[in-house]
User: Fold this.
Amino acid sequence: MALKVCKFGGTSLASADQFRKVARIALADADRKIVVVSAPGKRDKPDTKVTDLLIAYADAKLAGSGAEAVEQAILERFAGIIEGLGLPGEQFETVKTILISRGEGDRSHRARYIDSIKALGEEFSARLLAAFLQKEGHDFIYVDPKDAGLVLSDEPGNAQVLPESYELIRPLRDSAHRIVFPGFYGYAKNGNLVAFPRGGSDITGAILAAAVEADVYENFTDVDNVFAADPRVVDKPAAIHEMTYSEMRELSYAGFSVLHDEALQPAFNAKIPVHIRNTNNPESKGTLISLERHNDEFPVVGVAGSADFCTIFLSKYLMNREKGFGRRLLQIIEDADLSYEHMPSGIDNISVIIKQSSLTPEVEHRVLERIRSELAPDKLLIQRGIALIMIVGDGMTKQIGIAKRATGALSDNAINLEMINQGASENSIMFGIRNEDMNKAIVSLHNAFFGK
Amino acid sequence: MALKVCKFGGTSLASADQFRKVARIALADADRKIVVVSAPGKRDKPDTKVTDLLIAYADAKLAGSGAEAVEQAILERFAGIIEGLGLPGEQFETVKTILISRGEGDRSHRARYIDSIKALGEEFSARLLAAFLQKEGHDFIYVDPKDAGLVLSDEPGNAQVLPESYELIRPLRDSAHRIVFPGFYGYAKNGNLVAFPRGGSDITGAILAAAVEADVYENFTDVDNVFAADPRVVDKPAAIHEMTYSEMRELSYAGFSVLHDEALQPAFNAKIPVHIRNTNNPESKGTLISLERHNDEFPVVGVAGSADFCTIFLSKYLMNREKGFGRRLLQIIEDADLSYEHMPSGIDNISVIIKQSSLTPEVEHRVLERIRSELAPDKLLIQRGIALIMIVGDGMTKQIGIAKRATGALSDNAINLEMINQGASENSIMFGIRNEDMNKAIVSLHNAFFGK
Assistant:
């Protein structure tokens, strides 16, 4: 018998109907031993996520006014779910009691207080799903992260899992009952409740999957699969049914919002396949992310882009004979607390690509001054409005003709290439272009590699 | 009236007939006020350059045996030239006397002694050319670098010009006579004769051209022009009649042996156009190297390649969030006294390209150990046998389709691209390929851009 950890995102739990879908999916496969849930998300576009309501509630409590209306809204959401699931009225009383008592908690540390409130969305989701499954006659229990041993660093809102968690959680594997587990939070060693960064339920699921050595970590969301390009940019992009961890990582970094690669990292580290699936269409194939892919129909699995970078360009005659030039440049960047993306270089020139948003006028001034005085370049330019486009595919650099297809597609669409970067053994090629060409570039690259 | 400094290379002065060609060229244009000469080069393939004979002579003298035979060979070379030019026998006596007395000089400092001997090739060339021109009734005089004020750093065999030289040499501009000047050497402030590195006559000419603010620096060699690719690799490569300093610099770096870009640097700094011409075919158009080119028939001016690089490849999950990763890697490279060529990067990986020859097993071991212990990469690989191919052309990155043509040519010839690097505002694109594909790549890129 296989062991599966499955996690359901916010839209999968947005209403009683969605809870029923989740229950159906959980019950459809006896291997789904651990079900991790998010807080109820949006039911439709204008709706508000429960987590956002909870944060507003905490803020209002801290501000000392306006909490009543938010409290009402939160309770209404859960009342609707409880009623829709046919759960007894005492469930609502429990939710209300916990919310109010937690609201009256210690407000001396702002971030801790917010964590303690915003985690309630997941706690209530998990409690209600477990109650519903029990009511329907199934052997599911609610397990609290504290009881399971999910120990995190004491960093409110940005907690990290501590290594001992894995050993502590491991016995869940042999639990006599199937488990519903709230995502998004755990406890510091001092007993404080602390939350992960956003996307935290994905992290919880990934940690649990790793800890119990699951055969697969099923991540249920509201899309059928990962697409080869952003569907807001490309009309009906190709579906990707298989990809590797590193492909996902590159795409996620390059602007794919469907995936939170860092959140899934604990599962990747433990080499547990991650299966992205759709709660609203459980029949669809989904996207399986694992160490290696078997389907190599496409050398490239995706095209992604990200706008608003800038390049600091330096040229200096005989630069390449000046030992330490690049290192000193990066030191200046680092001292200004900036991260750089890439550093393509010519013989006498070097460009550092940086997120435009991180280069405030003040930082820019300081960095340029230091570059001028310490590196004495012949030329020093800043170019803004650069978009970085990535084509990603494992081993594609070993296949001849990829760069030709990509540069051909860009050139045929009159897109000028400001930069190109492909390193040894890489599974991506980066193209630097003008911001305004970004969507056109994504469309042409998608069509070049996915036959449209 | 314009002012020209012209310099003749070794093959231009290999024999009396060649001296006559040089004299004819010098006399053909009254603007050629300063003529800089190399030592006599090879008359044919198996021949030995006079400079090499002089170095052998110095070595023999230092070793204390075998000098006589070399002395004889040197004197024969000059006897032939003197006789062929119809110069009086006393010229030969002068050459012999100087050679022997210099040979008996202070041998306590080996490198200094070698410099004092090997510089004689240029000195004799210049003295004999001046004597010949005088004999033919022209107002040329021999000017010694010491008298002209060519002051160099006291680094035997690797001297650098000192800034004051330019002011000291400047009056040559207004000399009443036309001048023959020996290349390759000058004097340190302490009066020691010191030689430039190899290619030093080019340096002398460039310094003189800059000092007298020449309108052009004519560099006479034995090729009609610079070619778009190495003629030993590409059959009848395209001729390049115009190029910019920076194009030349990139090509020279990338393996173009016809040009010594650093040697020409003093002229470039002073914005003096350099005209590469052929002593054996003075009618040919040559190649004019200047700040800007007017002929933009070709977006690319040349293709060059250089083999035997290696890449150190590191990958590490979340590398790009680790501030200072690239900088610390370059610090390790720098501490090992290595230079790197490029540093292409992906999201979680980075490659440093290094000349294979500089990475001895001992250095490699030390560098890899430090990388492992200080940067803890998930993966660390060294890939050898990498050739770097450059296509070069000013502003070509502003023209759409260059990358397409290049990657298309490589792909059509089944050449796999290991790396690509093109930075902002660059006038080159670098392709990293396998050594064994280098010549094929140069041919296909040449043909793609120069229509064959």
Summary: Chain B touches chain A through 72 residues (CB under 8 Å).
